[in-house]
Amino acid sequence: MQRGRRATTCVLVRRGDAALVLDAGTGLHRLITEPERLAGVTRIDLALTHFHLDHVCGLTYLPGLPVLPTIHAPGAWLYGRPSAELLAPLLHAPISPSEIRAPIHELRPGAQTIGEFTVTARAQPRHWHPTAGLRVEDRLALITDTGYDPGSAELARDIEHLLHEAWTPGDKCDAGEADARRVARDAGAGRLTLVHLHPDDSRNHDGIEL
User: Fold this and answer.
1) Residues 101 and 2 in one domain
2) Other residues' Cβ atoms within 10 Å of the Cβ of residue 122
3) CA nearest 31: which of 71, 1, 3, 63?
4) To pair with 22 at 20 to 30 A between CA atoms, which of 48, 98, 112, 123?
5) Which is more confident, 73 or 168?
6) Prediction pTM value
7) Which residues neighbour 51 within 8 Å (Cβ) at sequence distance 6 or greater?
8) Which of the listed residues 89, 108, 127 is the one where a domain comes to its end?
9) What DSSP assignment string belongs to 54-100?
């Protein structure tokens, strides 16, 4: 992947006029600079895996979207604090240049309806702070910011497309490429894309061989 295209985690899923965005890293800017990605959208939902800055800094771009998203975040579930309270500094002055009044709902463990999608969330305790693995029906699963976790394979069972962290090298708080491949094989995933890569890793990891 070209370095100019590198960004922190943000994944778009479309179904008709509904959009689901997973995480709000710097990659969210492409939904503004490439408006065709959201052409015709009348509803946007945004699900966060956790609150580390590289996964939420893109929230400041929300006013530039054609529809203000509804945010779903795991504050009450994973941290025992309301998500709105945890996100407030990013959505208000002096950090945000404008007041962002997006609705904020609590992400829950297990299967739930988010907009037009069924999303399954699973706790991942093997990072610096707990994170959530997310599955969108049978279409894709996002497993990021976690050390190797054998339970990830069950979340991603028979998934069409697995997006899995591959920090280099993997350690107890971040999975590596070998861990991602292992989860993909154990899950029977149709396709694997490595995400959350080390800044010095410039290889193309999209759709690698399992």
Assistant:
1) yes
2) 20
3) 63
4) 98
5) 73
6) 0.92
7) 73, 75, 79, 86, 87, 129
8) 108
9) HHHGGGGGGGGSSSPPEEEE-IIIIISS-HHHHHHHHHSTTTSSS--
